[in-house]
Amino acid sequence: MSNYNIAVLAGDGIGPEVMQEAKKVLSAVEQAFDLSFTLKEFDVGGIAIDNHGQALPPATLKGCEDAQAILFGSIGGPKWDSLPLEERPERAALLALRGHFDLFSNLRPAKIYPGLEALSPLRADIAASGFDVLVIRELTSGIYFGQPKGIEGEGEEQFAYDTMRYSKKEIRRIAISAFEAAQKRGKKVTSVDKANVLLCSRLWREVTEEVAKDYPEVTLEHIYIDNATMQLLRYPSDFDVMLCSNLFGDIISDECAMITGSMGLLPSASINSENFGLYEPAGGSAPDIAGKGIANPIAQILSASMLLRFSLNLTEAADAIDAAVVKTLADGILTGELLSAENRDQAKSTSEVGDYIANIIATANA
Ligand code: NAD
Ligand code: IPM
Ligand code: MN
Protein backbone atom coordinates (compact mmCIF):
# COMPACT_ATOMS: atom_id res chain seq x y z
CA MET A 1 0.00 0.00 0.00
CA SER A 2 1.39 3.43 -0.93
CA ASN A 3 1.99 5.83 1.94
CA TYR A 4 2.04 9.62 1.64
CA ASN A 5 3.27 12.20 4.18
CA ILE A 6 1.16 15.31 4.57
CA ALA A 7 1.86 18.20 6.95
CA VAL A 8 -1.41 19.43 8.45
CA LEU A 9 -1.50 23.05 9.69
CA ALA A 10 -5.04 23.79 10.88
CA GLY A 11 -4.36 27.26 12.32
CA ASP A 12 -6.95 29.56 13.86
CA GLY A 13 -10.67 30.38 13.92
CA ILE A 14 -12.65 27.96 11.75
CA GLY A 15 -9.36 26.35 10.58
CA PRO A 16 -9.42 23.44 13.08
CA GLU A 17 -13.19 22.94 12.60
CA VAL A 18 -13.04 22.55 8.83
CA MET A 19 -9.73 20.63 8.97
CA GLN A 20 -11.44 17.99 11.10
CA GLU A 21 -13.82 17.35 8.18
CA ALA A 22 -11.01 17.24 5.60
CA LYS A 23 -9.29 14.59 7.75
CA LYS A 24 -12.53 12.61 7.88
CA VAL A 25 -12.71 12.69 4.10
CA LEU A 26 -9.05 11.69 3.70
CA SER A 27 -9.69 8.77 6.00
CA ALA A 28 -12.64 7.67 3.79
CA VAL A 29 -10.33 7.97 0.76
CA GLU A 30 -7.69 5.78 2.47
CA GLN A 31 -10.26 3.01 2.97
CA ALA A 32 -11.86 3.28 -0.45
CA PHE A 33 -8.65 3.47 -2.47
CA ASP A 34 -6.35 1.37 -0.29
CA LEU A 35 -4.00 4.27 0.39
CA SER A 36 -2.28 5.43 3.54
CA PHE A 37 -1.82 9.06 4.55
CA THR A 38 0.50 9.95 7.41
CA LEU A 39 -0.84 13.27 8.68
CA LYS A 40 1.53 15.17 10.96
CA GLU A 41 -0.03 18.17 12.68
CA PHE A 42 1.81 21.41 13.51
CA ASP A 43 0.87 24.72 15.10
CA VAL A 44 0.77 27.72 12.80
CA GLY A 45 -0.48 31.31 13.03
CA GLY A 46 -2.05 32.76 16.17
CA ILE A 47 -2.12 29.45 18.01
CA ALA A 48 1.62 29.10 17.36
CA ILE A 49 2.25 32.60 18.70
CA ASP A 50 0.34 31.63 21.85
CA ASN A 51 2.07 28.25 22.25
CA HIS A 52 5.60 28.94 20.95
CA GLY A 53 6.00 32.73 20.71
CA GLN A 54 6.08 32.85 16.90
CA ALA A 55 3.65 32.28 14.04
CA LEU A 56 5.88 29.88 12.13
CA PRO A 57 7.95 27.90 14.67
CA PRO A 58 11.03 26.06 13.34
CA ALA A 59 9.40 22.67 14.04
CA THR A 60 6.45 23.63 11.82
CA LEU A 61 8.70 24.72 8.97
CA LYS A 62 10.76 21.54 9.30
CA GLY A 63 7.55 19.47 9.31
CA CYS A 64 6.53 21.13 6.04
CA GLU A 65 9.96 20.56 4.50
CA ASP A 66 9.80 16.87 5.42
CA ALA A 67 6.30 16.38 3.95
CA GLN A 68 5.19 15.74 0.37
CA ALA A 69 2.57 18.49 0.61
CA ILE A 70 1.00 20.89 3.10
CA LEU A 71 -2.69 20.98 3.97
CA PHE A 72 -3.32 24.39 5.49
CA GLY A 73 -6.42 25.70 7.31
CA SER A 74 -6.57 29.41 7.96
CA ILE A 75 -4.83 31.83 10.28
CA GLY A 76 -5.25 35.15 11.99
CA GLY A 77 -7.94 36.81 14.03
CA PRO A 78 -8.73 39.77 16.29
CA LYS A 79 -6.50 38.45 19.11
CA TRP A 80 -3.36 38.96 16.99
CA ASP A 81 -4.42 41.98 14.89
CA SER A 82 -2.54 44.55 16.94
CA LEU A 83 0.87 42.88 16.57
CA PRO A 84 3.42 44.60 14.31
CA LEU A 85 2.77 43.60 10.67
CA GLU A 86 5.88 41.45 10.41
CA GLU A 87 4.85 39.36 13.44
CA ARG A 88 1.22 38.89 12.47
CA PRO A 89 0.17 35.36 11.47
CA GLU A 90 -0.67 36.39 7.89
CA ARG A 91 2.78 37.75 7.12
CA ALA A 92 5.01 35.78 9.54
CA ALA A 93 3.48 32.38 8.69
CA LEU A 94 1.43 32.31 5.50
CA LEU A 95 3.44 34.73 3.34
CA ALA A 96 6.63 33.28 4.84
CA LEU A 97 5.64 29.76 3.75
CA ARG A 98 4.65 30.95 0.27
CA GLY A 99 8.01 32.69 -0.07
CA HIS A 100 10.09 29.91 1.49
CA PHE A 101 8.79 27.24 -0.89
CA ASP A 102 8.53 29.65 -3.88
CA LEU A 103 4.84 28.80 -4.27
CA PHE A 104 4.36 31.31 -7.07
CA SER A 105 1.41 29.71 -8.85
CA ASN A 106 -1.90 29.95 -7.02
CA LEU A 107 -4.87 28.15 -8.56
CA ARG A 108 -8.37 29.05 -7.39
CA PRO A 109 -11.11 27.20 -9.30
CA ALA A 110 -14.67 28.55 -8.96
CA LYS A 111 -17.68 27.02 -10.63
CA ILE A 112 -21.47 27.15 -10.58
CA TYR A 113 -22.40 23.49 -11.03
CA PRO A 114 -25.29 22.83 -13.42
CA GLY A 115 -28.41 22.50 -11.26
CA LEU A 116 -26.86 24.51 -8.42
CA GLU A 117 -27.52 27.96 -9.88
CA ALA A 118 -29.80 28.77 -6.95
CA LEU A 119 -26.77 28.88 -4.61
CA SER A 120 -25.43 31.88 -6.51
CA PRO A 121 -26.45 35.36 -5.44
CA LEU A 122 -26.49 36.37 -9.13
CA ARG A 123 -29.83 37.03 -10.85
CA ALA A 124 -31.25 33.70 -12.04
CA ASP A 125 -30.86 34.34 -15.79
CA ILE A 126 -27.24 35.42 -15.32
CA ALA A 127 -26.37 32.45 -13.10
CA ALA A 128 -28.01 30.17 -15.70
CA SER A 129 -25.57 31.41 -18.37
CA GLY A 130 -22.83 29.47 -16.52
CA PHE A 131 -19.70 30.20 -14.56
CA ASP A 132 -16.53 28.12 -14.58
CA VAL A 133 -13.41 30.15 -13.87
CA LEU A 134 -9.88 29.30 -12.82
CA VAL A 135 -8.18 32.26 -11.19
CA ILE A 136 -4.41 31.99 -11.56
CA ARG A 137 -2.85 34.35 -9.10
CA GLU A 138 0.84 35.23 -8.88
CA LEU A 139 1.62 34.55 -5.22
CA THR A 140 5.22 35.37 -4.31
CA SER A 141 5.87 38.83 -5.72
CA GLY A 142 4.08 42.08 -6.54
CA ILE A 143 3.03 44.54 -3.87
CA TYR A 144 2.92 41.83 -1.18
CA PHE A 145 6.66 41.18 -1.36
CA GLY A 146 8.17 44.23 -3.12
CA GLN A 147 10.91 46.13 -1.30
CA PRO A 148 11.25 48.74 0.03
CA LYS A 149 8.26 48.98 2.30
CA GLY A 150 8.14 51.06 5.41
CA ILE A 151 6.69 53.74 7.56
CA GLU A 152 8.58 56.93 8.34
CA GLY A 153 8.19 60.38 9.81
CA GLU A 154 6.11 61.82 12.64
CA GLY A 155 2.68 63.30 13.22
CA GLU A 156 0.70 64.37 10.14
CA GLU A 157 3.91 64.14 8.10
CA GLN A 158 4.16 60.40 8.78
CA PHE A 159 3.96 58.31 5.61
CA ALA A 160 3.91 54.65 4.64
CA TYR A 161 4.89 52.95 1.42
CA ASP A 162 4.74 49.56 -0.27
CA THR A 163 6.44 48.68 -3.52
CA MET A 164 4.72 46.96 -6.41
CA ARG A 165 7.43 45.25 -8.38
CA TYR A 166 7.47 42.55 -11.04
CA SER A 167 10.33 41.15 -13.08
CA LYS A 168 9.76 39.81 -16.58
CA LYS A 169 10.82 36.40 -15.34
CA GLU A 170 8.16 36.42 -12.59
CA ILE A 171 5.45 37.50 -15.03
CA ARG A 172 6.51 34.95 -17.62
CA ARG A 173 6.33 31.95 -15.33
CA ILE A 174 2.84 32.77 -14.02
CA ALA A 175 1.63 33.59 -17.55
CA ILE A 176 2.89 30.16 -18.68
CA SER A 177 0.91 28.56 -15.80
CA ALA A 178 -2.20 30.36 -17.07
CA PHE A 179 -1.76 29.39 -20.73
CA GLU A 180 -0.95 25.78 -19.85
CA ALA A 181 -4.15 25.62 -17.78
CA ALA A 182 -6.25 27.35 -20.45
CA GLN A 183 -5.08 24.89 -23.07
CA LYS A 184 -6.65 22.07 -21.02
CA ARG A 185 -9.90 24.04 -20.41
CA GLY A 186 -11.80 26.72 -22.34
CA LYS A 187 -8.74 28.00 -24.27
CA LYS A 188 -9.09 31.58 -23.12
CA VAL A 189 -6.90 33.68 -20.84
CA THR A 190 -8.20 36.98 -19.51
CA SER A 191 -5.29 38.90 -18.07
CA VAL A 192 -6.36 41.34 -15.36
CA ASP A 193 -4.34 44.53 -14.89
CA LYS A 194 -4.36 48.28 -14.50
CA ALA A 195 -2.23 49.09 -17.53
CA ASN A 196 -3.84 52.53 -17.89
CA VAL A 197 -2.05 53.60 -14.69
CA LEU A 198 0.64 51.17 -13.53
CA LEU A 199 4.04 50.46 -15.06
CA CYS A 200 3.98 46.95 -13.59
CA SER A 201 0.81 46.32 -15.58
CA ARG A 202 2.39 47.63 -18.79
CA LEU A 203 5.22 45.11 -18.38
CA TRP A 204 2.65 42.45 -17.43
CA ARG A 205 0.81 43.01 -20.76
CA GLU A 206 4.01 42.99 -22.79
CA VAL A 207 5.21 39.66 -21.34
CA THR A 208 1.75 38.09 -21.47
CA GLU A 209 1.54 38.94 -25.19
CA GLU A 210 4.95 37.31 -25.73
CA VAL A 211 3.90 34.12 -23.93
CA ALA A 212 0.62 34.03 -25.91
CA LYS A 213 2.61 33.54 -29.13
CA ASP A 214 3.57 30.05 -27.93
CA TYR A 215 -0.10 29.12 -27.47
CA PRO A 216 -1.81 29.92 -30.78
CA GLU A 217 -4.96 27.97 -29.89
CA VAL A 218 -5.53 30.03 -26.72
CA THR A 219 -7.19 33.46 -26.97
CA LEU A 220 -5.71 36.24 -24.85
CA GLU A 221 -7.77 39.21 -23.68
CA HIS A 222 -6.73 42.02 -21.37
CA ILE A 223 -9.10 43.69 -18.93
CA TYR A 224 -8.68 46.41 -16.33
CA ILE A 225 -9.25 45.23 -12.76
CA ASP A 226 -12.13 47.65 -12.11
CA ASN A 227 -13.97 46.56 -15.25
CA ALA A 228 -13.24 42.90 -14.44
CA THR A 229 -15.05 43.12 -11.10
CA MET A 230 -18.25 44.29 -12.83
CA GLN A 231 -18.07 42.11 -15.98
CA LEU A 232 -17.80 39.05 -13.73
CA LEU A 233 -21.24 39.86 -12.34
CA ARG A 234 -22.70 40.84 -15.70
CA TYR A 235 -21.30 38.20 -18.08
CA PRO A 236 -19.73 35.53 -15.83
CA SER A 237 -19.72 32.97 -18.64
CA ASP A 238 -17.29 35.14 -20.66
CA PHE A 239 -14.39 34.07 -18.45
CA ASP A 240 -12.25 30.92 -18.43
CA VAL A 241 -8.76 31.44 -16.95
CA MET A 242 -8.19 34.78 -15.22
CA LEU A 243 -4.51 35.64 -14.94
CA CYS A 244 -3.87 38.02 -12.05
CA SER A 245 -1.05 39.64 -10.14
CA ASN A 246 -0.90 39.00 -6.41
CA LEU A 247 -3.21 41.74 -5.12
CA PHE A 248 -5.71 41.69 -7.98
CA GLY A 249 -5.99 37.90 -7.73
CA ASP A 250 -6.67 38.17 -4.01
CA ILE A 251 -9.62 40.47 -4.69
CA ILE A 252 -10.99 38.74 -7.80
CA SER A 253 -10.93 35.31 -6.13
CA ASP A 254 -13.17 36.41 -3.24
CA GLU A 255 -15.63 37.72 -5.83
CA CYS A 256 -15.47 34.44 -7.78
CA ALA A 257 -16.09 32.48 -4.56
CA MET A 258 -19.19 34.51 -3.82
CA ILE A 259 -20.52 34.10 -7.37
CA THR A 260 -20.63 30.34 -6.72
CA GLY A 261 -22.48 30.91 -3.43
CA SER A 262 -19.99 31.22 -0.58
CA MET A 263 -16.43 31.95 0.46
CA GLY A 264 -16.59 28.51 2.04
CA LEU A 265 -16.69 26.79 -1.36
CA LEU A 266 -13.40 28.04 -2.82
CA PRO A 267 -10.29 25.86 -2.47
CA SER A 268 -6.81 26.80 -3.59
CA ALA A 269 -3.51 25.26 -4.56
CA SER A 270 -0.23 27.15 -4.24
CA ILE A 271 2.42 25.32 -6.21
CA ASN A 272 6.10 25.72 -7.04
CA SER A 273 8.01 24.59 -10.11
CA GLU A 274 8.53 21.10 -8.59
CA ASN A 275 4.79 20.62 -7.94
CA PHE A 276 5.33 20.89 -4.20
CA GLY A 277 2.32 22.68 -2.84
CA LEU A 278 0.38 24.23 0.00
CA TYR A 279 -3.37 23.69 -0.20
CA GLU A 280 -5.82 25.93 1.64
CA PRO A 281 -9.29 27.45 1.47
CA ALA A 282 -9.15 30.86 -0.22
CA GLY A 283 -11.12 32.31 2.69
CA GLY A 284 -9.85 33.13 6.14
CA SER A 285 -10.37 32.20 9.76
CA ALA A 286 -13.90 33.70 9.75
CA PRO A 287 -13.86 34.99 13.35
CA ASP A 288 -17.55 35.94 13.02
CA ILE A 289 -18.62 32.28 12.87
CA ALA A 290 -15.68 30.46 14.51
CA GLY A 291 -16.46 28.05 17.35
CA LYS A 292 -20.11 27.60 16.36
CA GLY A 293 -19.78 24.46 14.22
CA ILE A 294 -21.47 26.17 11.27
CA ALA A 295 -18.56 26.89 8.91
CA ASN A 296 -18.71 25.33 5.47
CA PRO A 297 -15.98 22.64 5.29
CA ILE A 298 -16.15 22.24 1.50
CA ALA A 299 -13.31 24.66 0.60
CA GLN A 300 -11.03 22.72 2.98
CA ILE A 301 -12.17 19.36 1.61
CA LEU A 302 -11.70 20.48 -2.00
CA SER A 303 -8.25 21.81 -1.04
CA ALA A 304 -7.39 18.27 0.13
CA SER A 305 -8.64 17.01 -3.24
CA MET A 306 -6.36 19.47 -5.06
CA LEU A 307 -3.46 18.24 -2.90
CA LEU A 308 -4.10 14.65 -3.98
CA ARG A 309 -4.42 15.71 -7.62
CA PHE A 310 -1.47 18.06 -8.00
CA SER A 311 1.16 17.00 -5.48
CA LEU A 312 0.44 13.26 -5.10
CA ASN A 313 -0.94 12.48 -8.57
CA LEU A 314 -3.90 10.58 -7.07
CA THR A 315 -6.38 11.54 -9.77
CA GLU A 316 -9.05 8.92 -9.08
CA ALA A 317 -9.18 9.73 -5.38
CA ALA A 318 -9.37 13.47 -6.13
CA ASP A 319 -12.18 12.86 -8.65
CA ALA A 320 -14.06 10.87 -6.01
CA ILE A 321 -13.87 13.75 -3.50
CA ASP A 322 -14.99 16.31 -6.10
CA ALA A 323 -17.93 14.12 -7.16
CA ALA A 324 -18.97 13.57 -3.53
CA VAL A 325 -18.96 17.33 -2.91
CA VAL A 326 -21.14 18.02 -5.95
CA LYS A 327 -23.60 15.29 -4.89
CA THR A 328 -23.74 16.68 -1.35
CA LEU A 329 -24.63 20.15 -2.62
CA ALA A 330 -27.13 18.69 -5.10
CA ASP A 331 -28.74 16.68 -2.28
CA GLY A 332 -29.27 19.96 -0.43
CA ILE A 333 -26.88 19.18 2.43
CA LEU A 334 -25.93 22.81 3.00
CA THR A 335 -24.39 24.94 5.74
CA GLY A 336 -26.39 28.00 6.72
CA GLU A 337 -24.61 30.65 4.65
CA LEU A 338 -25.78 28.90 1.46
CA LEU A 339 -29.44 29.12 2.51
CA SER A 340 -31.86 32.00 2.40
CA ALA A 341 -32.94 33.40 5.77
CA GLU A 342 -36.33 31.64 5.68
CA ASN A 343 -34.71 28.23 5.02
CA ARG A 344 -31.87 28.54 7.48
CA ASP A 345 -33.52 26.20 9.98
CA GLN A 346 -32.66 23.41 7.52
CA ALA A 347 -28.93 24.20 7.74
CA LYS A 348 -26.54 21.34 8.38
CA SER A 349 -23.56 21.67 10.69
CA THR A 350 -19.90 21.57 9.66
CA SER A 351 -19.56 17.96 10.82
CA GLU A 352 -22.85 16.83 9.23
CA VAL A 353 -21.61 18.07 5.84
CA GLY A 354 -18.24 16.35 6.38
CA ASP A 355 -19.93 13.08 7.43
CA TYR A 356 -22.17 13.16 4.36
CA ILE A 357 -19.25 13.66 1.97
CA ALA A 358 -17.12 10.98 3.64
CA ASN A 359 -20.03 8.56 3.54
CA ILE A 360 -20.59 9.06 -0.20
CA ILE A 361 -16.91 8.29 -0.84
CA ALA A 362 -17.05 5.19 1.35
CA THR A 363 -20.23 3.77 -0.22
CA ALA A 364 -19.55 4.73 -3.86
CA ASN A 365 -16.10 3.15 -3.78
CA ALA A 366 -16.72 0.20 -1.42
P1 NAD B 1 -12.74 35.60 5.97
O1 NAD B 1 -12.54 34.93 4.68
O2 NAD B 1 -12.23 34.93 7.19
O3 NAD B 1 -14.30 35.90 6.18
C1 NAD B 1 -15.04 36.67 5.24
C2 NAD B 1 -16.51 36.26 5.31
O4 NAD B 1 -16.65 34.97 4.71
C3 NAD B 1 -17.04 36.13 6.75
O5 NAD B 1 -18.37 36.57 6.80
C4 NAD B 1 -16.97 34.63 7.00
O6 NAD B 1 -17.92 34.17 7.95
C5 NAD B 1 -17.24 34.06 5.61
N1 NAD B 1 -16.60 32.75 5.46
C6 NAD B 1 -15.29 32.50 5.23
N2 NAD B 1 -15.06 31.18 5.21
C7 NAD B 1 -16.26 30.59 5.42
C8 NAD B 1 -16.70 29.23 5.51
N3 NAD B 1 -15.83 28.22 5.39
N4 NAD B 1 -18.00 28.98 5.74
C9 NAD B 1 -18.88 29.98 5.85
N5 NAD B 1 -18.55 31.29 5.77
C10 NAD B 1 -17.25 31.58 5.57
O7 NAD B 1 -12.10 37.07 5.84
P2 NAD B 1 -11.85 38.21 6.94
O8 NAD B 1 -12.97 38.26 7.89
O9 NAD B 1 -11.49 39.40 6.17
O10 NAD B 1 -10.54 37.73 7.70
C11 NAD B 1 -10.54 37.09 8.98
C12 NAD B 1 -9.12 36.73 9.34
O11 NAD B 1 -8.64 35.70 8.47
C13 NAD B 1 -8.13 37.88 9.20
O12 NAD B 1 -7.20 37.78 10.25
C14 NAD B 1 -7.47 37.61 7.86
O13 NAD B 1 -6.20 38.19 7.74
C15 NAD B 1 -7.41 36.12 7.88
N6 NAD B 1 -7.33 35.48 6.57
C16 NAD B 1 -6.57 34.34 6.52
C17 NAD B 1 -6.50 33.62 5.35
C18 NAD B 1 -5.71 32.38 5.34
O14 NAD B 1 -5.29 31.90 6.36
N7 NAD B 1 -5.45 31.80 4.20
C19 NAD B 1 -7.24 34.05 4.22
C20 NAD B 1 -8.01 35.21 4.31
C21 NAD B 1 -8.06 35.91 5.50
C1 IPM C 1 -5.64 34.80 0.78
C2 IPM C 1 -5.54 35.66 2.02
C3 IPM C 1 -4.10 36.10 2.25
C4 IPM C 1 -3.67 36.91 1.03
C5 IPM C 1 -3.84 36.90 3.54
C6 IPM C 1 -4.33 36.18 4.76
C7 IPM C 1 -2.38 37.23 3.68
O1 IPM C 1 -6.40 36.76 1.91
O2 IPM C 1 -4.96 33.75 0.73
O3 IPM C 1 -6.42 35.13 -0.12
O4 IPM C 1 -3.95 38.12 0.95
O5 IPM C 1 -3.03 36.32 0.16
MN1 MN D 1 -7.73 36.69 0.21
UniProtKB/TrEMBL annotation:
Compartment list: Cytoplasm
Enzyme class at the top of the EC tree: oxidoreductase
Catalytic activity from the UniProt record: (2R,3S)-3-isopropylmalate + NAD(+) = 4-methyl-2-oxopentanoate + CO2 + NADH
UniProt cross-references to SUPFAM superfamilies, sorted A to Z: Isocitrate/Isopropylmalate dehydrogenase-like
Coiled-coil zones: none
Gene Ontology annotations for the cellular component aspect, listed alphabetically: cytosol
Record note on cofactor: Binds 1 Mg(2+) or Mn(2+) ion per subunit.
Functional pathway: Amino-acid biosynthesis; L-leucine biosynthesis; L-leucine from 3-methyl-2-oxobutanoate: step 3/4
Domain spans labelled Isopropylmalate dehydrogenase-like: 5-357
Pfam families: Iso_dh
Cofactor(s) named in the record: Mg(2+); Mn(2+)
Binding sites annotated in the UniProt record for Mg(2+): 226, 250, 254
Binding site for NAD(+): 77-90, 284-296
Its EC number(s): 1.1.1.85
Alphabetic keyword roster: Amino-acid biosynthesis, Branched-chain amino acid biosynthesis, Cytoplasm, Leucine biosynthesis, Magnesium, Manganese, Metal-binding, NAD, Oxidoreductase
GO biological process: L-leucine biosynthetic process
Chain residues that bind substrate: 98, 108, 137, 226
Keyword Amino-acid biosynthesis: yes
Source organism, top-level taxon: Bacteria
The keyword Nucleotide-binding belongs to this UniProt entry's keyword annotation: no
Site residues (Important for catalysis), renumbered to this chain: 144, 194
Membership in a protein family: Belongs to the isocitrate and isopropylmalate dehydrogenases family. LeuB type 1 subfamily.
Subunit structure: Homodimer.
Protein name as annotated: 3-isopropylmalate dehydrogenase
